[in-house]
Design a protein that fits this description.
Layout: H1 7-17, E1 22-23, H2 27-44, H3 49-58, E2 70-71, E3 75-77, E4 83-85, E5 90-91, E6 95-98, E7 103-105, E8 110-111, E9 116-118, E10 120-121, H4 126-129, E11 133-136, E12 139-141, E13 146-147, E14 152-153, E15 158-159, E16 164-165, E17 170-171, E18 174-175, E19 179-182, E20 187-191, H5 197-201
Parallel strand pairs: 2-5, 3-6, 4-7, 5-8, 6-9, 7-12, 8-13, 9-14, 12-15, 13-16, 14-17, 15-18, 16-19
Antiparallel strand pairs: 1-11, 10-11, 19-20
InterPro entries: Hexapep, Hexapeptide_acetyltransf, Mac_dom, Trimer_LpxA-like_sf
Keywords: Acyltransferase, Transferase
Protein name: Maltose/galactoside acetyltransferase domain-containing protein
Length: 202
């Protein structure tokens, strides 16, 4: 359905993409999610790697022209077009990207199985929550990160470059580059030497 045929749906979509409060039950967004879910089903039931890459493009997941992402099915997302992958990204099986707004992964990121990325936020007030109003915050992963299995990224969280995320960590805030984080909620448990540290010591 085009926005010109559903101006209210298009308005809700624009609010969603801006991270403002929007109606997740509007027809346009419901149809877009259903289409993405159907496309994920096709991806998850396809063995041919060329067909999988074609389906990833159908989801409108963006990635560099000179690099193809390696996504192991099953994989699940809500829209697809809000997912942006860098070069040589590996996503292991059973990962979930609730991409209400942008989810960005940098170059050379490795993601273990069962990682969950949640951009959507629901109201704390139960009456408001029952109206299907929600908003969202972007998630950003830097370059050269290693994310352990079953880690969870909450709305608005981010990590810098060369970060290692322990298995099962719940990431609720922003972390700098060159650290190891783990736990619930995730905290820094170790600092790593940045790439040029040996040159500075010499």
């Amino acid at each position: 359905m085009e926005g010109t045929e559903d101006p209210e749906g298009q308005r809700q979509k624009e609010l969603m993409l801006r991270g403002e409060s929007y109606d997740a039950s509007c027809k346009l967004l419901v149809l877009e999610r259903e289409k993405a879910h159907d496309t994920c089903f096709d991806f998850n039931n396809t063995r041919n790697e060329k067909d999988r890459l074609r389906i990833i493009r159908e989801l409108k997941i963006t990635f560099p022209e000179d690099s193809e992402p390696w996504i192991v099915p099953p994989f699940y997302c809500d829209y697809g077009y809000n997912i942006h992958l860098g070069k040589d990204v590996f996503i292991n099986f059973n990962c979930v990207f609730l991409d209400v707004v942008k989810i960005s992964l940098g170059d050379n990121c490795l993601m273990g199985p069962g990682v969950q990325m949640y951009t959507a936020r629901h109201p704390l007030d139960y009456k408001l929550r029952s109206t299907f109003l929600e908003d969202a915050r972007e998630i950003t992963i830097g370059n050269d990160c290693w994310i352990g299995g079953s880690a969870v990224f909450c709305p608005g969280s981010s990590v810098g470059d060369r970060v290692v995320v322990g298995a099962g960590a719940v990431v609720t805030k922003n972390f700098p580059s060159d650290v190891v984080i783990a736990g619930t909620p995730a905290t820094i448990i170790r600092h790593l030497d940045p790439p040029d540290s040996n040159q500075r010591k010499a």
